[in-house]
Design a protein that fits this description.
Radius of gyration of chain B: 18 Å
Largest interface: A-B, 39 and 28 residues
Distance between the termini of chain A: 41 Å
Shape of chain A: globular
Strand content of chain A: 15-25%
Helix content of chain A: 25-40%
Largest sheet of chain A: 6 strands, mixed
Oligomer: heterodimer
Number of strands of chain B: 0
Largest sheet of chain B: none
Number of helices of chain A: 9
Number of domains of chain B: 1
Distance between the termini of chain B: 44 Å
Shape of chain B: globular
Strand content of chain B: under 5%
Number of helices of chain B: 11
Order of helices and strands of chain B: HHHHHHHHHHH
C-alpha cells in the first residue's frame, strides 16, 4: 500500500522499554495524530521511523518498500520527511539556504557535487515554500536569528522541500502563538494533498480537530486508535492522558 | 632573494590554511594533525624524485598519498566528535612524524636532502602561486556548490542534515580527503622548494599554527585563512630572532582574537 506502515516496532534503552510493539499506518491524504503523555515514546517512534534510531524489532514500510535498514538520509531522499521537537535550524545559513539543502538532495548523490547550489529554479521553489509558511521576508536572515515560532515554521518548510510522501511533524505547534499555529495547521492541511501526515502534538484540542485518525500511546505501547471523537472518549485514554491533563487544568 | 623566499613560504602557508579550512571551517571537523598530510606530500615527493620519478607525476602522487591517508582519517572521524576527534588527529600527527623518523628509506632524523625541483627560485614562486590560485578556485567552487552546502549543513547540525537527505558520513570523508590531498600537493612543492626536509618540519606545532591561521583569519571564509597565513607566517619571519618564544606570541595573538573577535579577523557571525 502507499504511505507509511509500521509493524511491531520495539526499542529498549538499557532496561527501559521506550517503544514496545507499536504498529500504525498512515495513508496519503490523511492526517494521523500521535498522542500520549510525556515519556509515552512518541518521539522515539518518530526516530525509529525516520532512521535516526535502529529498532530492536519491527519493520517500517514506505509505499510498500521495506526501509527498516536504510540510513536516515536515504529515507529522506525517498520522501520521508520529518521535523524535530527541539528545532534544529542550520544557524549560520540563511533561511533560504536552509531550504536549499533538501532541494539539493538529488544532486548530492553524485561523488563530487560541484555544481552551484543556487539555481534560479531552486530559488523559485524555495521562495514558494517560504511564502507558504510566511517566512519570505526573512529569506536572507540567518536562521539562528529567528524567534522560535519562525524556526518551527522553517522546519516545516524544509521538510516540505523534500516533496514528502510521508511527513512526520513532531510538536510543530508547541510554543507558537495561536495565529502561527493556525498558519502551520493550514500548511499541514495543504501538505496532506500529497503526503501521509503524522502529527505529534501536545495541544490535543487544536490537533484532534486537524486529524482524521488518532493513535494514543502510553508507556511505549498503543492503547487506543481510531477516529478522534471515539478515541477522546476511550476510558483508557481519559485516565492515561486527557484525564491527567484535566487534573492539571 | 629574501622576499622571494618569504613570498613562496607565505603562498604555501596560505594554500595549507585554505585546505584546512575545507575540513575545519566548512565541514566543522576540528583537526590538529594537518601538518602530517603536508609532510606526507613532502616525503612522498622526495622519495619518488630520489627514485627518478618525473616531478609532476611525483607531485600528483604526493597529493594522492596525502588524500588517501586523509580518507582513513575521515573514516576515523565518523566515530569521534569534536574534542575527541581533535585528540585523535594529534595522535595521527605524532604517528606520521614517527614513521618519517623510523622508516629507513625516509632518512631518519637527518631527513631527506638534495630534492631537486625542476625550477629555480622564481619558477618555484610562480608554481606555488599557481597552486595557491588553484586552491582558491577549488575552495570557492566548493563553497558555492551543492557539496559546500552539504558540508556547512552537517557542520551546523548533523541530525538535521541527515534528515534533509545529506549523507553526513560520506561528505565528512569527502572534506577530509579533499583538504588533505590539497595539503599533500602543497607539501610536495614545499619539498622541491626547500630541497631538504626533516620529520620535525611537519610536527604538531605546525598543525597548531595552521589551525591558528584559520581561526585568527576567520573560519569558513575565503580570505580569512589567507590573511591568517600571511599574518602568522609574516610574524614568524619578523620575529625569527626570538625563535624560541614565537609560540608565546602566537598564543597571545590567538587569545586576543578569541577574546575580542571570536569569529576571526574577517569572519562574520550570525
Amino acid at each position: 500500500m502507499s504511505g507509511l506502515e509500521v509493524h511491531g516496532l520495539s526499542k529498549a534503552f538499557g532496561g527501559l522499554r521506550a517503544v514496545a510493539g507499536v504498529s500504525l499506518t498512515a495513508e496519503p491524504g490523511r492526517v494521523l495524530g500521535l498522542f500520549g503523555p510525556n515519556g509515552a515514546g512518541k518521539t522515539t517512534v518518530f526516530n525509529l521511523i525516520a532512521g535516526a534510531l535502529r529498532p530492536d524489532k519491527g519493520r517500517v514500510l514506505l509505499d510498500g518498500h521495506d526501509i527498516t535498514r536504510l540510513p536516515a538520509y536515504r529515507r529522506a531522499q525517498r520522501g520521508l520527511a520529518r521535523t524535530f521537537q527541539v528545532v534544529k535550524p542550520l544557524n549560520e545559513l540563511t533561511v533560504m539556504d536552509n531550504v536549499m539543502v533538501p532541494l539539493a538532495h538529488q544532486r548530492l548523490r553524485r561523488l563530487l557535487p560541484l555544481h552551484r547550489y543556487r539555481t534560479p529554479a531552486r530559488e523559485q521553489r524555495a521562495r514558494a515554500l517560504l511564502e507558504q509558511v510566511g517566512l519570505l521576508e526573512q529569506a536572507d536572515a540567518p536562521a539562528g536569528a529567528l524567534p522560535l515560532g519562525m524556526k518551527k515554521r522553517l522546519e516545516v518548510a524544509r521538510a516540505l522541500a523534500l516533496e514528502p510522501k510521508v511527513l512526520l511533524l513532531d510538536e510543530p505547534l508547541a510554543g507558537l502563538s495561536l495565529q502561527d499555529a493556525r498558519l502551520v495547521l493550514d500548511v499541514v492541511h495543504a501538505a496532506r494533498e500529497a503526503a501521509a501526515v503524522v502529527l505529534i502534538e501536545h495541544n490535543v484540542r487544536l490537533a484532534m480537530a486537524a486529524c482524521d485518525r488518532a493513535v494514543v500511546m502510553e508507556a511505549g505501547a498503543v492503547i487506543a486508535a481510531g477516529v478522534p471523537d471515539e478515541v477522546k472518549r476511550d476510558p483508557k485514554v481519559i485516565t492515561a492522558y486527557l484525564g491527567k491533563e484535566g487534573a492539571d487544568a | 632573494m629574501y622576499y622571494l623566499t618569504l613570498a613562496t613560504l607565505l603562498l604555501i602557508y596560505a594554500t595549507l590554511a585554505l585546505s584546512l579550512n575545507l575540513i575545519t571551517g566548512l565541514a566543522g571537523q576540528v583537526t590538529l594533525g594537518h601538518a602530517a598530510f603536508f609532510g606526507i606530500g613532502a616525503y612522498v615527493l622526495a622519495f619518488l624524485i630520489a627514485h627518478g620519478v618525473d616531478f609532476w607525476l611525483a607531485l600528483a602522487a604526493a597529493g594522492a598519498a596525502a588524500g588517501a591517508t586523509g580518507l582513513a582519517l575521515g573514516a576515523i572521524s565518523l566515530r569521534l566528535r569534536e574534542d575527541f576527534l581533535a585528540i585523535a588527529t594529534i595522535a595521527i600527527n605524532f604517528v606520521v612524524v614517527a614513521l618519517f623518523l623510523y622508516l629507513p628509506f625516509f632518512g631518519g632524523a637527518f631527513g631527506m636532502s638534495d630534492i631537486a625541483g625542476p625550477f629555480g627560485a622564481l619558477g618555484t614562486l610562480l608554481s606555488t602561486a599557481v597552486l595557491f590560485l588553484l586552491a582558491l578556485a577549488l575552495h570557492e567552487s566548493v563553497r558555492a556548490s551543492d557539496l559546500g552546502l552539504a558540508l556547512i549543513a552537517l557542520r551546523e547540525s548533523e541530525q538535521a542534515a541527515e534528515a534533509l537527505g545529506v549523507n553526513v558520513k560520506r561528505f565528512k570523508v569527502t572534506a577530509f580527503s579533499l583538504g588533505t590531498a590539497m595539503a599533500g600537493v602543497a607539501g610536495g612543492l614545499y619539498a622541491a622548494y626547500v630541497g631538504v626536509i626533516h620529520p620535525h618540519d611537519f610536527g604538531f606545532p605546525l598543525s597548531v599554527t595552521l589551525l591558528a591561521m584559520v581561526a585568527i583569519g576567520g573560519m569558513g571564509t575565503l580570505w580569512g585563512p589567507v590573511l591568517g597565513a600571511v599574518v602568522l607566517g609574516g610574524f614568524a619571519q619578523a620575529f625569527a630572532f626570538i625563535h624560541n618564544y614565537q609560540a608565546v606570541l602566537f598564543g597571545l595573538l590567538l587569545a586576543l582574537v578569541m577574546r575580542y573577535r571570536p569569529q576571526g579577523l574577517l569572519g562574520r557571525r550570525a
